[in-house]
Design brief:
The structure holds 2 protein chains of 2 kinds. Chain A is an alpha/beta fold. Among the domains of chain A are: about 290 residues, no CATH class; about 50 residues. Chain A contains 13 helices and 26 strands. In chain A, the strands form 3 sheets. In chain A, strands 5, 6, 8, 9, 11, 12, 14, 15, 17, 18, 20, 21, 23 and 25 form a 14-stranded mixed β-sheet that branches. In chain A, strands 4-3-7-10-13-16-19-22-24-26 form a 10-stranded mixed β-sheet. In chain A, helix 3 runs antiparallel to helix 4, helix 4 runs antiparallel to helix 10 and helix 8 crosses helix 9. Chain A is globular, with a radius of gyration of 22 Å. Chain B is globular and about 55 Å long. The relative contact order of chain B is 0.18. The longest helix of chain B is centred in the middle third of the chain and has 15 residues. Chain B is of the alpha/beta class. In chain B, the strands form 3 sheets. Chain B has a 6-stranded mixed β-sheet with strand order 6-9-10-3-11-12, sandwiched between helices. In chain B, strands 2-1-4-5 form a 4-stranded antiparallel β-sheet. Classes of the chains: A alpha/beta, B alpha/beta. At the A-B interface, helix 1, helix 11 and helix 12 of A face helix 2, strand 7, helix 3, helix 4 and strand 8 of B. Bound molecules: adenosine-5'-triphosphate and magnesium ion (MG). Magnesium ion (MG) binds next to helix 1 of chain B.
């Protein structure tokens, strides 16, 4: 039995590293006032106004108005967490932080620049990104793509800019995988969307470094409704990363994004997101991927913070031999309700999916796994594996699993595994009696719990995730 | 503090403690100095394990009176981790499982906490750990297992001793380290304790049996009954208890 020294040392470092990090590093809020806001509430006029400000083509304006009608006609879903705390009337649906967009970091307004600097965004770009977009409240404020990739025909910018510059390309993909009729929140996004990224990777282009978008939601009682489209054309390869943070406010804010990913024949796409919302945010994104023949889709997600999160990234396996993997880590701290999971729809023969969902509940935090697995008739020899592990820290926290299977193909095979572990006063006291602080003890337990997935996720994600978990743990206060 | 041998001293005075408003410890006084070996005996439910927990600062217990001083510093308002870092160690009567935390990372992190500034290279640390695992009879493969996860009763005890020798505490409380161990294991464990015992370290060995006291001879023997220190004595006291039980102390 050999010891993996490197991993052990890494682990040790991770546990030690972040003792000094405070949550306030993320929860600061800037004095920065939007230069333009549509004000509170949502009407036809609000939507017209947004479209007008953006000088959008008529087709987009009409799509927005249609989406608004659908939004108005759909009831607030009641099958999940209690959403009655969303204050639809007092939310402002569009906030413009500054006058212009730029691809020169120096031109970003000072306060906004400072915010992103505090969050470490420019360093990230220099160190390991092929390109990045930064969004502040409703609008992208900065985007940059390294020249090599631009020369190869890669397009990476905020969706608003893409609508202006590449309207035909955008039209081909906009709301295809996620139609606005899908659910109330998708419809809302269709009506008031602003910002988000548009990433197009041409045939055969393989980008080795990730591209990242950083979303910062600053205003109180605001909504953020970005719409992101990633297209990996045939035989291409891309890794897109998203990071989101918001400061802490008393009034609730709403985040309702759409993410559409198109993975064409033989292409490979990975979408990584680290969401760290403050405890006043309702986080309701709709994320979906269309995966074509022999293409691979990988979802890696870390969901921290927020008041309520409902998130079920879906993979539509549309061509033979398409595959999807979904690794999700949800941390439900005090006062948080995480209703998360994944959906895999096997629509073609020989498709495979793998879902690993890990949840950690702390104090009265609640984590639910809600999944859908569908094997259509004709999806012969398709396979799926679902694993849900829950860790409960303290005795009040809870976790539930609601898998839902629709199997119409007799040759398809699938398996479900679930485990629940609980850490209480006795376990923490045991570790503490050996000199580990409460924080360290909890971090060790959490890192241990995540160990098997940490090996599979990108290093920069693991580091970031660990940092955030550490922050969350730091707030644990007196356990037991 | 390198070079100078610093003798430790744990002084417990008139300690009283309760759990869920039920008073378990009523009046306990005891002094353990570096180099000394004390045995603590007493019938089931007397409060021996409770004393161990209270010394360690278990959050479920409430101290209602008295004091616990380690080298002159009051411990009562200190957290368990502060007590551990001050040199206190408790081998639990029933060590719990902590899933997901590997033995190797755990012991090393704990060591770094208890001995900050002492940077032992990871390879050297593990080599020493492997040697001690052999001595307490734990297979090397345990190194990458989770804490007490699926360990047998005896394996848990061996692991407590492994932690003790690796972490090098100054005052050691062993709560029934001898129960659940087979004859050979008991020998190995006693040998490790003897080897570890030095003039710096003081021991409080909680036990019901003579067996372990034959191998590790205590100079002092105490009897706890109904939350109070009922008798202090030497080896003879433990021998008499083995013969006659506790009734004669109760005065029945
Ligand atoms: N959580 C609790 N609630 C109520 N009573 C408790 C609790 N924990 C311990 N006790 C009681 O405290 C008393 C002392 O228990 P303790 O475990 O300290 O005894 P002990 O001397 O170690 O006994 P043994 O020799 O059997 O190990 C017992 O009567 C026990 O039932
Ligand atoms: Mg006991």
């Amino acid at each position: 039995m050999e010891i993996d020294f490197k991993r052990d040392e890494e682990m040790e470092k991770l546990v030690q590293d972040l003792k000094s990090v405070k949550r306030s590093e993320f929860e600061f809020h800037d004095a920065n006032k939007p230069v333009y806001s549509t004000g509170k509430g949502l009407t036809r006029e609000t939507v017209e106004e947004i479209s007008e400000i953006k000088k959008e083509p008529d087709w987009m304006r009409r799509l927005r108005l249609k989406a608004l009608e659908i939004f108005m006609s759909k009831p607030v879903p009641t099958w999940g967490p209690d959403l009655s705390g969303i204050d639809w009337e007092n939310t402002s649906y569009y906030n413009r932080p500054g006058e212009s967009k730029t691809n020169n970091w120096e031109e970003v307004p000072d306060e906004i620049k400072e915010t992103f600097q505090k969050l470490g965004v420019p360093e990230m770009e220099q160190k390991f990104l092929a390109g990045s977009v930064a969004q502040y409240d409703s609008e992208g404020v900065y985007h940059n793509l390294k020249k090599v990739w631009e020369d190869k025909g890669v397009v990476f910018m905020d969706l608003d800019s893409a609508v202006q510059k590449y309207p035909d390309l955008v039209k081909d993909y906009y709301c295809r995988a996620v139609p606005v009729t899908d659910n109330k929140f998708a419809a809302l996004n269709g009506a008031v969307w602003s910002g988000g990224s548009f990433l197009y990777v041409p045939k055969g282009v393989q980008i080795d470094m990730p591209l990242q978008t950083y979303f910062r939601m600053n205003g109180e009682a605001t909504g953020q409704f970005e719409h992101t489209i990633v297209v990996a054309d045939e035989g291409s390869k891309v890794h897109y990363i998203e990071g989101c943070t918001a400061p802490r406010y008393d009034k609730n804010s709403l985040h309702s994004a759409i993410v559409e990913i198109y993975v064409k024949r033989n292409a490979k796409a990975r979408y990584t997101s680290v969401q760290n919302w403050s405890k006043s945010v309702y986080n309701m994104p709709t994320k979906r991927a269309w995966v074509d023949e022999n293409a691979q889709m990988e979802w890696v997600g870390g969901s921290l913070g927020s008041k309520i999160t409902m998130l079920y990234p879906s993979s539509y396996l549309r061509g033979p031999y398409a595959s999807a993997s979904n690794l999700n880590i949800a941390l439900a701290g005090a006062g948080t309700f995480k209703d998360t999971g994944a959906k895999a729809l096997h629509l073609a023969p020989h498709t495979t999916s793998r879902i690993v969902a890990k949840s950690i509940s702390i104090e009265d935090g609640k984590a639910i796994y809600r999944g859908l697995l569908r094997m259509n008739k004709g999806a012969v020899h398709s396979k799926s594996k679902v694993q849900c592990d829950a860790l409960l820290i303290n005795d009040e926290s809870s976790s539930f699993t609601y898998p839902h299977d629709e199997i119409y193909e007799p040759t398809a095979t699938f398996s479900h595994e679930a485990s629940v572990g609980r850490i209480g006063t006795e376990e923490l006291t045991y570790l503490r009696s050996r000199g580990l602080s409460e924080d360290e003890a909890s971090s060790m337990i959490v890192l241990g719990f995540l160990d098997d997935v940490m090996k599979e996720i990108p290093m920069e994600f693991a580091v970031e995730m660990n940092r955030l978990i550490k922050l969350e743990m730091g707030k644990l206060g007196a356990v037991g | 503090m390198k070079g100078t041998v610093k003798m430790s001293e744990l002084v417990i005075k008139n300690l009283a403690a309760s759990i869920d408003d039920r008073e378990i410890l009523k009046d306990v006084s005891l002094t353990v100095k570096g180099g000394e070996i004390h045995a603590l005996m007493g019938p089931n439910g007397a409060g021996k394990s409770t004393l161990g927990y209270v010394l360690m600062g278990h959050p479920n217990y409430k101290v209602t009176g008295g004091s616990i001083k380690l080298n002159g510093v009051e411990l009562i308002n200190k957290t368990p981790e502060e007590r551990a870092r001050a040199g206190l160690f408790l081998a639990f009567q029933n060590p719990v499982t902590v899933q997901g935390v590997k033995l190797s990372t755990f012991i090393r992190t704990a060591y770094n906490q208890m001995h900050p500034g002492e940077k032992i290279p990871i390879q050297q640390f593990y080599d020493s750990m492997k040697q001690h695992m052999k001595k307490v009879g734990l297979d090397e493969s345990f190194i990458s297992r989770s804490i007490n996860d699926g360990f047998s009763g005896g394996e848990r005890k061996r692991f407590e001793i492994l932690q003790m020798v690796m972490l090098k505490p100054k005052i050691v409380v062993l709560d029934e380290i001898d129960s659940g161990l087979d004859v050979d294991a008991l020998k190995m464990v006693a040998e490790e304790i003897r080897e570890f015992h030095n003039e710096e370290t003081g021991f409080l060995i909680i036990t019901h049996y003579q067996r372990i006291l034959k191998d590790i001879e205590p100079e002092f023997v105490h009897v706890l009954m109904d939350g109070k220190m009922a008798r202090d004595g030497n080896r003879d006291l433990s021998l008499r208890i083995e013969e006659e039980g506790y009734d004669w102390i109760r005065g029945v």
